[in-house]
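Good morning C.,

I know you're traveling, so I'll keep this short. The sequence:
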Amino acid sequence: MIKLRFVFLIVFVFVILIPIQQYLNLSEQRDLFVEASQIRSQSSEKIIAPRKTIADRNQNDLAISIQRPTLIFKTDADKEKIINFANDNSKIIFLNANKRLYFESNIDQKFISEAREFCGCTIIREDLFRRYYPYGSIAGTVVGFAGADGGLDGVEELFNSSLDAEIKEDFFIRSAKGQKTFGNLESFDLEKEKLTLTLDITLQYKLFEELKKAIVDSKAAGGFALIMDSKNGDILAMASYPSFNPNNSSRVLKRNRLMEDFYEPGSLIKPFTIAGALEMKLIEKDTVIDTNPGYVTLSNIRRSEAGGKNFGEIMPDEIIYHSSQVGTAKVAIKFSDDQLKNNLRRFGFGEFLEMDLSLSNPGTILDAPKLYEIDKASMGYGYSLEVNSLQIARAYSVFANKGLLIEPRISIDDSFQPKKVLDAEIADYVLKALRDTVLIGTASDLSKNSVEIAGKTGTTNKYIQGEGYAQGRYQSSFASIFPYSDPKYIMIVTIDEPDPNKYFGGDVSAPVVSVMAEFLERLKYL
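The tokens, ready to paste straight into the viewer:
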């Protein structure tokens, strides 16, 4: 019995185990052979990935990198000859820039040889990625432009580090004939690498056109406007005119004035003076402010109501919707120096925006060792401080959101936390006064609009550095919130140097809001 078991064991080893071991050895050798073969056939090359695309919130491209067959010339005269030659040969030119022609479709060596013979000139072919801006001047001052050195203006410059072209290594396998068989295509999925902005190009286009029309109609030097989502701070449109076309190589840059222009906002600040005084209990909602006889003398300087009006005895909400200079001055002098400055900062004036705009300063608030009564009055109605339109939009978000301050954002990836800065009841009280501004106050021309608009007019004498306040030169603004019953949007419009015969904010800036509000309603944004 023992002998039989021993014989069976020997048979098992020779018949079963040894062949299995040999098979495993062969498999291992085969894997090593395949691995060695792959190593020998695997290659890589450095590829310059194009600059990332910039898109609006609906994935409409605002800036793209395109590669087109490109011809370079020594002179513009040579280029003009080839333009004629290309037209004769039905070759479509995609872009004519500087001493380069970018063609829509491929051009072969025969075309280039014939072109050289036609013009008797030197032609260099160099197919490079070119930055192209589909909406040109419509979004030029926002998107900016990029060149060989990267982003040079606007969003292109602000987000340059994340947009910039990258050198990537692409791995692939060569066939027996030395051809590429496959590579790592996922590393070039440009859809995943877009910078998506909060802009809506439909609203951007319409706002640009309406702003331009208002500037032309009022014979103004220029203007700027924005639309912001009051709930999350998304900048949906941001227009500035005059603008520039970033596709034009001879472009003359125009700054984005919504970001870069700091100016005295005038009466747009009055609601914040009243709100702060209520919050600090310097006044109550039923406090009567005597504005007789239509002017007030502070620090030996007289300040009068616009147009010589006299509103008599009025309540705080009437100060807002009548835009009373005297009423605001009398409230402002109730603040201590620190209270007045801190009240402005409470609403974000003199403070940086949280989104990265690379601004060199956050605006200014008069920082004198002592504020005289005339200084307090001036600050109370929007002089002696400088702000930009984005800061104004941020501040007005407080009245649209029951006391919550909402930070603006231009990139969809940004996320900021709201801040409680004002009692909800006071915020609603001021919002009601802003609605009354449209119903019975300084913007009553908007009272019949199909959208319930709340807002505040503001008109200031323009301050020229080194000259002082310029006679007959104004900046006219309208800050708005709509719809009043359920605020969704904040819109700020400023017209620079309108016709001095018709220059109030309610006349030149408010109509832009009126048109845009109805446009939003018609397109079901409301």
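Safe travels,
E.
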